[in-house]
Amino acid sequence: MSSTATIAQERPVRWDHPLDPEMLQRDISWLLAQPPFAYLNPDVFKANGSLETILKHDARLVRYEPGDIVVREGDYGSSAFIVLRGSVRAFLVSLWEKQTQPVPSTDIWGALQQFVRSKFANQKRSDQGSGNRRSRGRDVESHPKHTPVQSVSVVEGKNRIFLQDINAILNDYQSESLGVGNIFGEMAAITRTPHRFSVIADAPTVVLEIRWQGLRLLRRDTGFRTYLDERYRSTGLETHLRETPLLRFLDDETIQKVVAVTKLESFGEMEWFAEFKDTKSKEVCSIIESEPTIAMEGTPANDLYLIRAGFARVSFQHGSGHRTTAYLGRGQMFGLEEISHSFLNPGSQPLPFQSSLRALGFVDFLRIPREAALKLLLPKVRRSELPSTIENLRYDAGGRVVPDATRMIPESNIETPLIEFLVDQRIINGKQSMLIDLDRCTGCDECVKACASTHDGTPRFIRNGPQYGPLMFAHACMHCVDPVCMIGCPTGAIHRNSDTGIISINPETCIGCKTCSESCPYENIVMIQVTDKQGRAAVDRNTNLPILQASKCDLCQNHSTGPACQNACPHQALYRVNTSDSSTLQSWLLRRTA
Hints:
Elements: E1 6-9, H1 25-32, H2 51-58, E2 59-64, E3 69-71, E4 79-85, E5 88-91, H3 108-127, E6 139-140, E7 154-155, E8 158-159, E9 161-162, H4 166-172, E10 175-178, E11 183-184, H5 186-191, E12 198-201, E13 205-211, H6 212-218, H7 222-234, H8 237-242, H9 252-261, E14 263-268, H10 273-279, H11 284-290, E15 293-295, E16 303-318, E17 321-328, E18 333-334, H12 336-344, E19 356-369, H13 370-377, H14 416-424, E20 433-437, H15 446-454, E21 467-468, E22 471-473, E23 494-496, E24 503-505, H16 515-519, E25 526-529, E26 537-540, E27 548-551, H17 564-568, E28 574-577, H18 582-593
Helix pairs in contact: 1-2, 2-6, 9-13
């Protein structure tokens, strides 16, 4: 045993942190008698505790009044909701412009603005009562046509947003009623993506909230999993079509016709990190060939693909290997160039796909048939927004058009090898990737020192990582589009801020199980030994082994001046870049070389 002072403690376990510590046994007994739980096979859950245990620790009852917003479009979701009493309305169109809280600014004016915002928020929290455990406090939500309530109440430190004139909103906006037994929010929880629509209580309502940890266990029951999968494949089509900018002029009748023929499909595994770790050391060509093929170059372009979640690689055959030209994420399309060519040139020979589309880990997409795209979608799209006609087509000996993917390479300042590097390393998953310009960096380590001084002496990143030329992508949390580190966390300690998307670890509920650290594909989460306020290292009372806790970059979100590492760099060599968006990355590259 080390000479360092230690303190013996009980090792925390998964069941120490229920979602609702005050959940009553009578509530659980009542829930077990209600659908869908009454129909589940209790034997399925014995390996992970009983069904009763799952409900006790991963669920809570929440009461809502008319006008209360249960989930809001654009917020990240981590729970599913089942209506037990009353009813809610799911709005199929946006009710407001989502104001996303920015990453803390590093300039004086930005810091001052954030201080004022945080000061006001703290006053709201301290001025209000604690309320009932079964209901959340109300906050104000401005609406473009209606006057918001001028009062705020806060419960359990969390605001509830309230819309005053719910009846007027119901009259003005298209919505779907969800009554007893209906489930919603599960798609956002399962895919770790923002909610696609808002849900507002239109009557006194009781819902059961089930956080992702419990939802994952409940999916082990075949009937429950089938029910969720059917919901997942049937409820999001219309919403996704409506929120696609290119299709914004579609009327309701056209939307319904497109929904009727559109298929929702997925490729790959949601828990893709294990396969990625096994394959990332292989040759690029073999990696690409092992990726599930969604559409193959040279085959008829019979469908238009619209990405809903995840990422896909666009590539074409080049010599004996493949050349990557782009990566597509949520909201982007594949096949639009080929189908638009036919639309803009009536009577012309249909084009085959000029490149291939492959799933990167996991990708979820809509598949719209070619004829539906030609007859229903493209006539409603502005000509100026369609791709240009492909000129100088090549034909084979049989007179058929053959792919020429070199024409399909988008105009970009991002060179192909860099695109392939970002894709193969899955850095395209990063919303806040730490990028170090080695042409500027002197290795002074001021960034690491600043991080350590901000976080109790322990830095949250390593100034090392994958490198492309003078660009280093440091081992720091990227606050991913798809944070697979969150999948297995048994307590919800690692979570994403619903507004900012920043991923944090709650030290109060982290049990040191290492699941997030082992799941992170980028080795950006490390385990450190827990210490008390006196600096004594915590050890297990029974085994005398160290008690660990997960640690990672949190973007200094609680500091008004922004990320300490970036502020401390004397040579402006350290940046945070959204590498999931090629246009954002391209803009940064242009500024770097200007």
